[in-house]
Specification:
alpha/beta; 186 residues; Rossmann fold; globular
């Protein structure tokens, strides 16, 4: 059975390395580790089909902008007949401290518009997720400006570590049940 790993973010140079794009950063880390590239452009996204630990996997970066992420995820899942239980979505979380990584098997959108879009279009909350902490903005900074801003130099080390941990968890999921991966990485 094929698996799908989706990293959420916004397309374009303007949004590279912003807090909202940590999902893209994890996909980039996996691509770098294995010498892969997002060589396919379809389903409103950039993706690749690969094999890891004997398991087939699709890695996807939606190109729809965050609020419409489901418009990329749903058609890809349908085309490759991937069940939601074989979906793993990686995204930023304001409610976790910077550098913290949390895995879950289900849940709501928690106010995250990309997750809201995926839950609505896929029609279920029953899919795996990796949340990467980006913390909340300081007083006087809007949430929008904060998530579309870049990490400070002081934060870069923690972010880099969390991206590496999330990529490790993605790789572990290729040959272990997600519950086992959760227990190892939470």
């Amino acid at each position: 059975m094929m698996k799908c790993i989706v990293g959420l973010g916004n397309p374009g140079r303007k949004y590279q390395k912003t807090r909202h794009n940590v999902g893209f950063m994890v996909i980039d880390e996996l691509l770098n580790r294995h010498g892969w590239s997002l060589d396919k452009k379809k389903f409103n996204g950039h993706y690749c089909l690969e094999s890891l630990h004997g398991e087939k996997v699709v890695l996807l970066q939606p190109q729809t902008y965050m609020n419409l992420s489901g418009d990329s995820v749903k058609p890809l899942l349908d085309f490759y007949q991937i069940e939601p239980s074989q979906l793993l979505v990686i995204y930023d979380d304001l409610d976790l401290p910077i550098g913290k990584v949390r895995l879950r098997q289900t849940g709501g959108h928690g106010g995250h518009n990309g997750m809201r879009s995926i839950i609505q279009t896929v029609g279920t909350k029953q899919f795996n997720r990796i949340r990467i902490g980006i913390d909340r903005p300081q007083t006087g900074i809007t949430v929008t400006d904060y998530v579309l801003g870049k990490f400070s130099k002081a934060e870069n080390g923690l972010v880099s570590d969390s991206i590496s941990i999330a990529a490790d968890a993605c790789e572990a999921w290729m040959d272990k049940p997600f519950l086992d991966v959760m227990n190892a990485y939470n």
